[in-house]
Amino acid sequence: MKRILLTSIILLSSITLFAQQTEEELKALQGPKKDSIAAIQARVDAIQAQIDALPGWKKGVFGTIGGNISKFDQWFNQSNPNVSSGNFGINANAFANLKREKDFWRNALNVNLGWVKFDDEDIDTDSEDFEQSTDVFNISSLYGRNITEKLAYSVLGEYRTTLLNNLNDPGYLDLGVGFTWLPIKDLVVVVHPLNYNFVFADGESTFDSSLGAKILIDYTRKIGAINFKSNLSAFQSYDTSDLSNWTWTNSFGYTLWKKIGVGFEFGLRNSPQETLFYTINTLEQADATFDSIDTEIQSYWTLGLSYSF
After folding, report:
1. Strand residues in 182-244 grouped as ranges (E)
2. Number of other CB atoms surrounding residue 127 within 10 Å
3. Which of 62, 191, 217, 302 could make an S-S bridge to 232, C-beta 3.0–4.6 Å?
C-alpha cells in the first residue's frame, strides 16, 4: 500500500513538473513569435502608407446604428403602467477623395437620423408613432490646386439642412474660394476669406444670407480597428456676428468582430439665427430680437452598434 501511495505521489509530481516546464517552454517560444508579428505588422503598415500616398480615389463609409423598444402592460410599480416606448437612430459618414499630382478633390457626407416613441396607452391624446428626434444632413465638396506639397488654392461648396423635418427650411449653402493647408496626413484646414453663406427659408423668417469668411477643419483617420472623424465648420459673417454660425461633429467607430462594433457620435452647434427663429415661432415670443436672447449651444449624441463598409 505504501509502495502504491509513493508511486502515485512521484507520478503526480512528475506530471506537475512536466506541465510547468511545458508552459514555460511555450511562453519562451511565444515571445519571439510576438516580436515577429509586430515586425510583420510594421511592414504591412508601411506598405499601406505607401498605398495611401498613391494618386487615385480613396473611398470609405462607417456608421452607427442604435435602438431599443419596450412595452409595459399593467406594470403598476411605475407611474405609467401601460406604456409602449422605443428609440432608433442611425448615422453614416462617407468620403470619396481623389488625389493627383497637381490637384485633389475631397467629398464628404454626414447623416444622423433618429426617432423616439413614448406612448402612454392610458392617455388617448398620446401619439402611437415614432417621432423624429435627431435630423442632421451635411455634404461638402472641396477642390484644390496645389501650390506646394502642403498648400493649395481651393474652392469649397458645403450644404447643410434637415431631411425628415423642414427640408431646406432652413438650408445653408456655403460657396467660397481661398486656400487649403495640409499640414499632416489626414488633416485638412480650409481658410476661405471670400465666402457667401446662402440661407434658404420659406415665408417670413429671421434668416438672412451674408458675405463672410469660412473655416473648415477635418481630420478623418482609421487606426487598426478604430474609425475616427472630427469636423469643424465655421462661418464668420462680415455683416454682423448674429449671422455667423459653427458646427463641430465627432464620430468614433470601434470594430469588435469582423465589421461590427461600437459607434459613438456627438455634435455641437451655435447659430443665433436658429435660436431667434425657435424663440419667435416655438416659444411664441414675437417681440424677441438678437439682443434680447441668449444663444444656446445646441448638442446631440448617438451611441450604438456600428458597421464599417
Report:
1. 187-200, 210-223, 226-237
2. 11
3. 217
- Estimate to the nearest angstrom the gap between the alpha carbon of 203 and the chain centroid: 33
Residue 178 has pLDDT above 70, yes or no: yes
pLDDT of 22 higher than 80 = no
132, 164 Cβ separation under 8 angstroms: yes
For residues 248 and 267, what is the distance between their CA atoms, to the nearest angstrom? Answer: 6
Higher pLDDT, 36 or 80: 80
Helix (H) or strand (E) holding 280: helix 272-281
CA distance 215 to 219: 14
CA 141 – CA 161 distance, rounded (Å)? 15
What is the three-class DSSP state of 272?
Answer: helix
φ, ψ of residue 77 in degrees (nearest 5): -75, -10
- C-alpha grid cell, residue 265: 457620435
The proportion of the chain whose per-residue pLDDT surpasses 90, expressed as a percent, equals: 37
Query: Is the model's pTM score more than 0.70?
Result: yes
pLDDT of 272 above 60: yes
Report the amino acid identity of residue 216.
L
Mean pLDDT of the chain: 84
C-alpha cell at 197: 453663406
- Cis bond upstream, residue 170 (ω within 30): yes
